[in-house]
Design brief:
binds aspartic acid, binds adenosine-5'-diphosphate, eight-stranded mixed beta sheet, binds magnesium ion
Length: 402
């Protein structure tokens, strides 16, 4: 049995014409001799709308009730797609994650998939049906509804692909591949035909929201190739895959950015390893993800710690930091939402010196002030002011001749 898993994102499911277009693509794959499992997202804008509905009632909805409403968006998509496929003469059945048994941990709004029961899926496929599954959602073992975090349908699709031992997972979206930069910011960005899991991990982790980070982690761990392509044409897209010997090692494969960052500084505390441990233990115990961290030496005995978090976690992180500031006798604690991250990624950086200096020169030429820097083998990240991010991305794209 050759199973293919296809995922269609929000723009691909935006309205009835889009749903019919997806149904045609699915039916073509089915008639091409495949067993097809489809994972879908809510129609474009729906999840935002549901978040806003909740926020109109209270600015602090409980995680459980938020998941209860957010999970409904995908349920609209699965039923409409099943109807559209049946209208084309193929059998199809839609399932929510509770019906299938996509079990997650209990972390509402950012749950992690733990196991997937494939019994119902296999049974329906054996009966000749196209199986359509709601992305983004899961259930705990107590059947509480959870969601996987924004953009999480990609992760649902890869997890289902892995559980079914599919040959590959096709992710259909509104761009025809992964580009050297977000094509909305760099109009002359180029399509990358093949990208390694490691590079894509860095791209997604650095803000290229074209793929949900955890979908790439899961695909990499299980060596599951992802073919990212357009819902609106039949062209080959981008393969995200294990590194192969004949694969060209790009010095810089792409540029990524995020603008939903905030930065917090705890200034002038005693330079004790335990202080740093206390800060990051407190923040992580509150389930806030810390991103870039820098430590500056004030004098021999005193340091200043800065770190970035996602904007939606800023208020919580700042409150905790203010408490920490008092506890650790900091001179001051301050925060700003006026930061963005700009990153360059490429496996070739491992072996080629001079990349960082070229990057810094390029930003200097543009008058872009760098607030923080972090590096890995294949990634250099600069934290800059929000107003500068587009200028920085465009200039870097040009400087590295992407
Ligand atoms: P979907 O709703 O199908 O999941 P997303 O909006 O989550 O789609 O992801 C697709 C979008 O990702 C594109 O429209 C594009 O603006 C953005 N994007 C960011 N970085 C890149 C990149 N490097 N290559 C392609 N698209 C990118
Ligand atoms: N509908 C969800 C969101 O908008 C999940 C997804 O699109 O992947 O975040
Ligand atoms: Mg997405």
């Amino acid at each position: 049995m050759s199973i293919i898993v296809q995922k269609y994102g929000g723009t691909s499911m935006a309205n009835s014409d889009c749903v019919k277009n997806v149904a045609e693509k699915v039916v073509r794959s089915k008639r091409g001799g495949h067993d097809v499992v489809v994972v879908v997202s809510a129609p474009a804008g729906m999840t935002d709308h549901l978040v806003n509905r909740a926020k109109e009632i209270t600015d602090k909805p409980s995680g459980r009730e938020l998941d209860m409403i957010l999970a409904t968006g995908e349920q609209i998509s699965i039923s409409l797609l099943a109807m559209a496929i049946k209208a084309l003469g193929e059998e199809a059945i839609s399932f929510t994650s509770a019906q299938v048994g996509i079990f997650t941990d209990e972390n509402h709004n950012k749950a992690k998939i733990e196991t997937i029961d494939t019994t119902k899926i296999i049974k329906a496929l054996t009966e000749g049906k196209v199986v359509i599954i709601a992305g983004f959602q899961g259930v705990t073992k107590d059947l509480e509804i959870t969601t996987l975090g924004r953009g999480g349908s990609d992760t649902s699709a890869v997890a289902i692909g892995v559980a079914l031992k599919a040959d590959e997972v096709e992710i259909y979206t509104d761009v025809d591949g992964i580009y050297t930069a977000d094509p909305r910011v760099v109009p002359n960005a180029h399509k990358i035909h093949r990208i390694t899991f490691d590079e894509m991990l860095e791209m997604a982790g650095s803000g290229a929201k074209v793929l949900h980070l955890r979908s790439v982690e899961l695909a990499a761990k299980n060596h599951m190739p992802i073919h990212l392509r357009s819902s609106f044409n039949d062209e080959m897209g981008t393969y995200v895959m294990d590194e192969e010997e004949n694969m060209e090692q790009a010095l810089v494969r792409g540029v990524a950015h995020t603008t939903n960052n905030a930065k917090i500084t705890i200034a002038n505390i005693e330079n004790k390893p335990q202080n740093i441990a206390t800060i990051f233990k407190t923040i992580s115990d509150a389930n806030v993800n810390v991103d870039v961290i820098t430590q500056n030496v004030v004098d021999q005995n005193r340091i200043t710690i800065s770190f970035t978090v996602a904007e939606e976690e800023y208020d919580r992180a700042l409150r905790l930091s203010n408490d920490l500031g008092k506890q650790l006798h900091a001179e001051a604690v301050y925060g700003t939402e006026d930061v963005a991250k700009v990153c360059i990624i490429g496996v070739g950086m491992k072996t080629t010196p001079g990349v960082a200096s070229r990057l810094f020169q390029c930003l200097a030429d543009q008058g872009v002030h760098i607030e923080m820097v972090s590096t890995s083998d294949i990634n250099i990240t600069c934290v800059v002011s929000k107003v500068d991010y587009a200028k920085a991305v465009l200039a870097i794209h040009q400087a590295f001749e992407l």
